[in-house]
Amino acid sequence: MKAFSARTTFVNSVFAFALLFQNTIWAQPENVAFENQALQQIQAAVDWNDSRYLGKLLKQYLGKKVTLDELRQIAKGHNSEVLQRAIEATTGFYGTHKEMLGIKRAAFLQMALFIENSLHEFVKKNQYYLPAEQTGLEYPLEYDSQTRRTFIILPQNKQTYIGAGKNKVVLKAIFYNEKKSEVVARAVQTKVREIEMKTTSELRGTTGIMDVLACTTFKKGNEVFRTIYTKLYFPGSLSRAFSLRFRFTYYEKMKIALNILKGLSELHKRNITHRDISPQNCLIHIPLGKAGRREIVAVIADLGRADSIWKNYPLKSRVQGHSCYTPPEGIVKGRVKGVDFLKSDVYAIGCIFYQLFYEKAAPWLSNKYVINTSKSEFSRYRVLSTKIYRYTNSRKRVLARKAMRGKISTREAFEQLILRMVDPDAEKRGFATGLYTELQSIYEAHSNTNRK
Ligand SMILES: Nc1ncnc2c1ncn2[C@@H]1O[C@H](COP(=O)(O)OP(=O)(O)OP(=O)(O)O)[C@@H](O)[C@H]1O
Ligand SMILES: [Mg+2]
């Protein structure tokens, strides 16, 4: 492998000047002379093993005076593996595009060259966050020593903004890869939540939980930045998919529910309760195409409030971060403890499945039961429970009768499972793992007998 080493700017300047002088003397037609000059300067920088200078030249000339093919030839001719890799990374990411997310191909090539050639020197010194001022690149870079992944940090603008909650701002970033770099989501904590970093990092690679690429922490002056890089889901949150009116077949609805139940059961197996279940905190990826049997992926995200079920939560802390998704028993302070948290998560997910199934929000959802404290806890508990019973009981009876006669369809069995999950009586809801297994057999039976 041929690596570059740093040379003084003085040598470069003299060399560049000499080239310029040479080109002027030979009085070639203007554009040809200039093109040659660009190529010659680049060749010289490759010869001189000066990656910093080369990076600058690439940024300046690519697409204007020099094509990627010409660069490829130089890289090959000079046997420069790093330049070849940087070029491949650039073509892998851009294909035929000249610009993506406001990043010009030439600027990307310069960053790719730096990552391929110089990043390791900083990593050796445990420097994992590299501001643009330090590298001379267009954007800052961040390296995760645990996964050895490198990310290009993009500024906040219309093209990069994904969303923001109460605790994080989420922007697009680039996960650098020599073969195919990817646009990913970069969530930066705006409030310190160490436990979120720990849980998210521990659950990396768990099915049904958002696909975490890296969790990083770096200090800049007195400030500490805590960042979670995840796969970018499209359209994003389930709430976004609902409001954009994405249509799903029953096959797809079951698949989405199965994915999410899998995630919940993985959390619950570890005695972790999510405590902030809402459609905003579930992410969904819907491939292009008509509703049918698309390869949809749904996951549980935002582990900002996730913690052990055995923790002693302060009496005033909410059972669910999103008040609308609080089960009736969660209204009564101090009532939900230990394994009760698992039932409360099941209820909240049940409410989401209700919306997925019926294509409208559960009619009893309201934050007033938690927020409006002018009435007693018990009366609010009773009103909410009665309301849920009123909206679900008659349908539950119909489905139960059908099931008894063995005449229940897979779609109805799915509906029955959802109505059980939102039962005001926490004991009747079931647990995530059992519900997952049950839904899996419904889903399999459905796949065998229905096209959609
Ligand atoms: N990987 C991703 N892909 C697509 N969209 C995402 C991704 N991660 C987050 N988002 C969007 O950004 C929003 C905020 O993210 P997140 O829920 O993690 O932040 P938060 O501040 O912790 O939220 P909360 O207010 O629920 O505590 C999400 O609701 C979702 O719409
Ligand atoms: Mg959130």
What does this structure look like?
It contains 16 helices and 15 strands. It is an alpha+beta fold and 452 residues long. It has 3 domains: 83 residues, no CATH class; 111 residues, Phosphorylase Kinase, domain 1 (2-Layer Sandwich), CATH 3.30.200; 215 residues, Transferase(Phosphotransferase), domain 1. β4 and β5 form a beta hairpin. α2 packs antiparallel against α3 and α3 packs antiparallel against α6. It binds adenosine-5'-triphosphate and magnesium ion. Adenosine-5'-triphosphate (ATP) binds next to β6, β7, β8, β10 and β11. Adenosine-5'-triphosphate binds next to β6, β7, β8, β10 and β11.
Summarize this entry quickly:
By secondary structure, the protein is of the alpha+beta class.
Strand-helix topology:
Elements: H1 9-25, H2 30-47, H3 51-61, H4 68-77, H5 81-94, E1 99-100, E2 103-104, H6 105-117, H7 119-124, E3 129-130, H8 132-135, E4 141-144, E5 149-153, E6 161-164, E7 168-176, E8 182-189, H9 194-202, E9 212-220, E10 223-231, E11 235-237, H10 238-243, H11 250-269, E12 272-273, E13 282-285, E14 297-300, E15 307-308, H12 340-358, H13 368-371, H14 377-404, H15 410-421, H16 432-449
Antiparallel strand pairs: 1-2, 3-4, 4-5, 5-7, 6-7, 7-8, 8-10, 9-10, 11-13, 12-15, 13-14
